[in-house]
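User: Please predict the structure of the protein below. I'd like the answer in structure-token form so I can feed it into my own downstream comparison script.

Assistant: Understood. Taking the following sequence of 309 residues as input:
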Amino acid sequence: QYDAVLMDIQMHKMDGLQTTRLIRRNPQHKELPIIAITAHALIDDRIKCLNAGMDDHIGKPIEKQVLYAALLKAIKPREGLGMSDLPDKGHKQQSFIPETIPGIEVDEVLNRLNGNQRLFWSVLTDFSREHSQAARNIRLLLSKNRPDDITEARRVNHAVSGMAGNISAKRLFNASLALGRKLTQDYHGNLNIELDEFEQALTQIAVSIGTIENMQKPSAKNISDNTTDQNTKLDINSITPIIKALYGQVSKKAFDSLSIFDELKPLLSGSDAETNKLADQLEQQVYNLSFASAKQTLKKIGEKLEIAL
């Protein structure tokens, strides 16, 4: 049972238009709100989405105010919708993301992520790990000049385009769009200008992320150590409602889990070595959205602290 579907248009095996038509064939999903997510904001693209059976259209990079407005328009109110179990007692995150990053609009990204620097850092490191070799890979694929390899080059470029939009890497985003347009047209092998710009923009982002990783990643790792006094006596009364709230949100696979974890982590910093290890493991699971694994780790932490979950 879903309240709405956010539909990426340029998916690998079946695009969003085809997927929407298939969904609409099922009478059970006739009224299900489907909102298109696409890098293209042209009128023709919007018309195609609406004709395929979608209800609305949002361009990338996604701005949360636009997304919220579309969801409010599409979703019928129901009890519990939009409510959070997060306790109303927070802590201010220590800053470890630079105010300026060459190639990235930092303020835009932090606004999109509600100021969550841990999530920002996770997105940046994911981008570096998954896409830093994209230009090289596209060149290699195009050099083979086979239909399947050209299709794969389009997929690689599309993945970079989506992530570049998410991290407000505007030069890279625009370069990727330009490259994508050429790849979508009849490919004749003349992409040197577009590929060079794409590679230069991608290299700028990779260097920026590498610089932060080398100079400031220790600060990110030690954030929780600096936010509470180093003592071995845990405040179980404070931990209990937060860990229960986190368990509830993880069970529902809710994105609120990330902000609730940020409430919990500093409260566990004075625990024993095994619990600290579990907390580090939980952090990776929550930020990778591995909810099933996070739920099991939370149970282990609950047992250690004698908190029933």
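That's the full token string. The mean pLDDT is 83.
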